[in-house]
Amino acid sequence: MTEITIRPLSQSDRADWQRLWTAYLTFYETKLPEEVYAVTWKRLFTAGEFEPKGFIATLDGRAVGLTHYLYHRSCWSEKNNCYLQDLFADLEVRGKGVGAALIEAVKQEAGKIGVKNVYWMTHETNATARKLYDHVARRTGFIEYDLL
């Protein structure tokens, strides 16, 4: 297998990013209006401590995965926490290390600024992803609640 390359998103990645993020949203049976795509893309390139950031994964020169992450304050630490908000790998490359490589890239990037807590959520029915997550991280036991 060719080596997976992980790099920060660049402006030239717009079409690949939109294809991958759309596939991610489709997986979660979600659709977003074009305005949300536009503002998210803009935010990914807006300077600021709390603006979202992103990585793209390529394999054989083709974009096959992405992640979005952001930093936020915590009352439990002097350092920020890092929330890995979105993680997606194309179906044909699942199980080949793309997801793990994207998670590791976020962990390494967060570590550069002293962030120790990188965390994320997934749906309880996402068995494929949970196999990876159980391998690379610890399950905290916390349950999410929403006011939506």
From TrEMBL:
It comes from Mesorhizobium amorphae CCNWGS0123. The keyword Transferase applies. Keywords: Acyltransferase, Transferase. Residues 4-148 form the N-acetyltransferase domain. It comes from the Bacteria. InterPro entries: Acyl_CoA_acyltransferase, Diverse_Substrate_AcTransf, GNAT_dom. This is GCN5-like N-acetyltransferase. GO terms for molecular function: N-acetyltransferase activity. PROSITE patterns: GNAT.
